[in-house]
Each structure stands twice: as C-alpha cells, then as structure tokens.
Amino acid sequence: MMGTAKTGGVVTAQTTERAPGSFVVVDREGGKVAIEFRPYHDTVSVLKGRTAGFDLLNGFTRDQARRLTEMLNESVISVFFAATGK
C-alpha cells in the first residue's frame, strides 16, 4: 500500500505497510509494565516473527498502562511501518 511521509518539510511517496491490531499491557522484568502491539493478522513483513511494544517510564503503574491502552485502542486505527530510504 502506498502512503506518504513528511521528511524535513517535503512530502514523499513511499511503500507503507499498515497493521490493524490492539494494544495490551504486559509485565516486564523487575516489576515494570509495558504496552505491546498485537496485530490482528500476520500480514506486515517487518513484524513477522517479531513483537512491537513500548517501554513505559519508571513508576508507571499497571492501572496507568491499562488506561493508556484503552485510549490507544479507542483512538488508533492501525500502526504503520514505512521505509525511509536511509
């Protein structure tokens, strides 16, 4: 799927892969929490055999992470991955 990206004020066409999915709270080592993106389908080549996620700031509670994932799941349509040509 073709998309556009803004690079240094110039919009350029490039190949973009999109993945609809959901965000979930996961436990990490040391009692930390993180947010993981789980695509609904295994169709994005860059994600095959991989997991995408976000490490959260120290002190972020499970409840704060849960509220953030709820907001992301209500607001984000898909996650996209684009080649930058670099």
Could you describe the 3D structure shown?
The protein is of the alpha+beta class and 86 residues long. The protein has one domain (2-82). It has 1 helix and 6 strands. The strands form 2 sheets. Strands 1-2-6 form a 3-stranded antiparallel beta sheet, with no helix packed on it. A 3-stranded antiparallel beta sheet has the order 3-4-5, covered by helices on one side. Strand 3 (21-27) and strand 4 form a beta hairpin. The longest helix has 14 residues, at 62-75.
Estimated share of beta-strand residues: 35-45%
The assigned structural class equals: alpha+beta
Shape: globular
Please trace the helix and strand order, writing H or E for each element: EEEEEHE
Kindly, what is the distance between the CA atoms of the first and last residues, rounded to a whole number of angstroms? 19 Å
* Percentage of residues assigned to helices: 10-25%
Radius of gyration: 15 Å
Number of strands: 6
Average the pLDDT over all residues and give the rounded result. Answer: 84
Main sheet summary: 3 strands, antiparallel
Number of helices: 1
Side by side, the strands of the main sheet go 1-2-6
Number of domains: 1
Poorly predicted segments: 9-13
